[in-house]
Amino acid sequence: MDTFKRLIVYSKPYGWRIAISMVASFAVGGTDAAIAYMVEPLLKKIFTEKDMTIFVLLPVAVIIVFLARGVARFIQEYYIRTAGQLAIQDIRNEFYRKHMELSLRHFSDNPAGVLISRVMSDVGQMQQGVANVVTGLLRDGVTAIGLLGVIFYRNWQLALITFIVLPLTALPAQKIGMRIKKLAKQSLEQMGEITSILQETFTGIKVIKAFRLEQRVIDRFSRTNFGLYRNLRKSIKYSALHTPIMEVITSFGVAGVIWFGGSQVLGGRMSASEFFSFLTAMVMLYSPVKKVLNAYNSVQQSIGAAERVFDVLDQKPEVEDPADPLTLVKARGDVELRNVSFRYNDEEVLRDVSLTARRGEVIALVGPSGAGKTTIMSLIPRFYDVAGGAVLLDGIDVRRLRLDDLLSQIALVDQETVLFNDTIANNIRLGCPGAPLEDVERAARAAFAHDFIMEMPEGYETNIGDRGVRLSGGQRQRLCIARAILKDAPILLLDEATSALDTESEHMVQQALANLMQNRTTLVIAHRLSTVLHADRIVVIDKGRVVETGTNDELLARGGLYRKLYDMQFT
Ligand SMILES: Nc1ncnc2c1ncn2[C@@H]1O[C@H](COP(=O)(O)OP(=O)(O)OP(=O)(O)O)[C@@H](O)[C@H]1O
Ligand SMILES: [Mg+2]
């Protein structure tokens, strides 16, 4: 019920649309009742009394009533459904905004496909319920009430029979509704799985082709797809059962009415025309009542979806701005990790890690795979918060700073060269959206990217996502370096690409990096010999701890883990 109330709140801003639709609903309901009512004069005046005026007027009246009903129905439908779509748009926007607010853990815990599916399928299913409930309860509810009025007006005793039967139909509807809600949730989970297979296999198509995995992914896809079908089959079974069960229950009512009403007509206590008017209203009543109850099922379905959506909306971001932040405009650039420990799940990934990087220094992190280098780097921009100890920037705990302030001090160049579907200039401008083209160009030159950019069809205005625009690994890296140079932040976090480039490209990337590191405090996860040679200090990490610190020469002389890694990696 709470979920439902919350769902309804989203339609509040569109109150006037709903109000118009409601007024139109009354018109639809009213005309339905009028049609049932008209059966009586039709039969009585025309066939019993042979009244010629009515005979001429009634067909005209029928057309007018249906015309009015058509217009009302259109207005009713148009406004309620647009209101529903607008509400959904709001929910989807809020949902997306929430995702941007959530911390990195949310994204590493959920596959991208599952997240995509939540934004698309779950929200879509929520909308169906919102729209259905309003149409169902308003239009069909009003129609049902109007028809009930006719029934009671015609013959209250007969009406009571109908009235006893109707509530009985609600019982199975309620049971079925609960089942359908649970099934809806499961189906959405399966939709998530399907989307995540799609996302994974479309982005990883090269690997699939190279390893001839086509048949395997096809099998996996059709298995998941079949799982979804099995689930939907249950859901179809329940909703298909719903109507027959209701019809059987109502047949008792109809039988009662025929028996009881028929004997009244035969006994002369009710006219035949009245009886038919009653029967018409009763038969007409059946359809809106059925729709109201069906609307209930689809509401259950959308509540199932809404619960999943609200689960995410209610999550608190792990990393948030402090209540009383300290201000920091431009940092000096001293970075320190002090006795830091950290865990992703239960297992401690970092233990008592301490390191310092003073303004302008280059600190290289080296260590075996899985040692915790990337993790250390992700604590500085607060992608995650430490479990123990502290990360300090200019001596200030980063948790005391506003995230905006903190992140404007940091430029990040990741192993993965992330470029967006936009022009080259805008991809470089990412950190400073308003930067003039001269600055973009200067950054590109310093990153050794200017020359290849000028060879592209539209230079800096070339769109990266366009067909035919293909960038090599080294070119992508240099664009990301240009982006960091333009941002001109005092602290640089650099995860060097492991993939080897050809010598010429490698040389350019190295020079670009050298330009980037100038006058910045740099923490770099080193994979290149040149980087460790030029580093002011090398910090060797193993199993989440700092095991050695020193310059290349010192560490080589020591003959410890660094020596081993050096021999393996650089010679
Ligand atoms: N998002 C995550 N959730 C849970 N565990 C994680 C996550 N990311 C990393 N880990 C674990 O934390 C440990 C350290 O990982 P990290 O990525 O920091 O290593 P690394 O030193 O950067 O390794 P590599 O040189 O291979 O990149 C590993 O044992 C890894 O399995
Ligand atoms: Mg790593």
Concise overview:
The protein is an alpha/beta fold and 571 residues long. The protein is 66% helix and 10% strand. It has two domains: 312 residues, ABC transporter type 1, transmembrane domain (ABC transporter transmembrane region fold, Up-down Bundle), CATH 1.20.1560; 236 residues, 3-Layer(aba) Sandwich (Rossmann fold), CATH 3.40.50.
How far apart the termini lie comes to 67 Å
Global Rg: 35 Å
- Please give the share of residues in helix: 55-70%
Mean pLDDT: 87
Binned strand content: 5-15%
Describe this structure in words.
- The structure is a single chain.
- By secondary structure, this protein is α/β, with parallel strands linked by helices.
- The chain has 2 domains: 2-313, Up-down Bundle (ABC transporter transmembrane region fold); 335-570, P-loop containing nucleotide triphosphate hydrolases (Rossmann fold).
- It has helices at residues 2-9, 15-48, 52-101, 104-109, 112-154, 156-203, 205-210, 214-266, 272-313, 373-379, 403-407, 424-428, 437-446, 450-454, 473-487, 503-517, 529-534, 552-558, 561-570, and strands at residues 335-343, 348-357, 362-366, 388-393, 396-397, 410-413, 491-495, 521-525, 537-542, 545-550.
- The strands form 2 sheets. Strands 6-7-8-3-9-10 form a 6-stranded mixed β-sheet, sandwiched between helices.
- α13 packs across α15 (473-487).
- The longest helix is centred in the middle third of the chain and has 53 residues, at 214-266.
- It binds adenosine-5'-triphosphate and magnesium ion.
- Adenosine-5'-triphosphate (ATP) is lined by residues 108, 344-345, 349, 367, 369-375.
